[in-house]
Amino acid sequence: MIEVAELGKEVASGDGKLTILHEISFAVRSGEAVAIVGASGSGKSTLLGLMAGLDVATAGTVRLGGQDLAGLDEDGRAELRGRLLGFVFQSFQLLPALTALENTMLPLELAGRSEARATAEAMLARVGLGARFGHYPKHLSGGEQQRVALARAFAMKPQLLLADEPTGNLDAETGAQVIDLMFAMNAEAGTTLILVTHDEALARRCGRTLRLAAGRLLN
User: Fold this and answer.
1) Contact, 146 vs 114, CB < 8 A?
2) pLDDT per residue over 51-75, tens digit each?
């Protein structure tokens, strides 16, 4: 599903350059659930952004669904993301001016899906928000907002779900409920999962764990 080879990322810092990632290489097979763990600042979110084509590597390659991201322009990467990827972020990334239903429908509508409303309604019902279609994010709890984000991600039937600290803004009980739901939906859909987390217990729920420290892959 995704292959990372000798991936590096540098950014300008003062008079020199700061290396965020050093020669990262690994592959994730279709259907796998893989955790990427490491302390804050280890490069986890940068790596996730490079895998999604949201950022451009300084060195190395990312092949997503067999396609080398370096060979695509920004529009090409966006098209590939829309076709293959689903995202769940720590900060939910819901549009405040849209209702739960409208937020879930948005990627479907952008993709020109004629069944956008029916699919979005079914997915919101699946995550337990069948009575919340018309609610705006500010009227939803953190757990409910993350459930909308899950509904939005899975509505597109992605081949790969990227989750970046999905429980980071939730209390322990709510976070556990959201994670149970995410893994259940992932199993139902047969989606490949890459989960960035600092939570070792959460990482153990995945089939494999990759560990980052100071921008280097330890295993």
Assistant:
1) no
2) 888 888 889 999 988 889 988 888 8
Kindly report the backbone phi and psi dihedral angles of residue 128, in degrees, each rounded to the nearest multiple of 5, phi listed first.
85, 20
Q: In angstroms, what CA-CA distances link 23 with 58, 148, 208, 216, 219? A: 10, 36, 20, 7, 13
Is 28:34 a contact under the CB 8 Å cutoff? yes
Global pTM value: 0.85
Instruction: Give the number of other Cβ atoms within 10 Å of residue 64's Cβ.
Output: 23
The closest of 67, 81, 55 to 3, measured between CA atoms, is 67
What is the C-alpha to C-alpha distance for residues 12 and 24, in angstroms, rounded to an integer? 20
**Cα torsion through 33, 70, 165, 141, rounded to 10:** -110
User: Is residue 120 within 8 Å of 155, Cβ to Cβ?
Assistant: yes
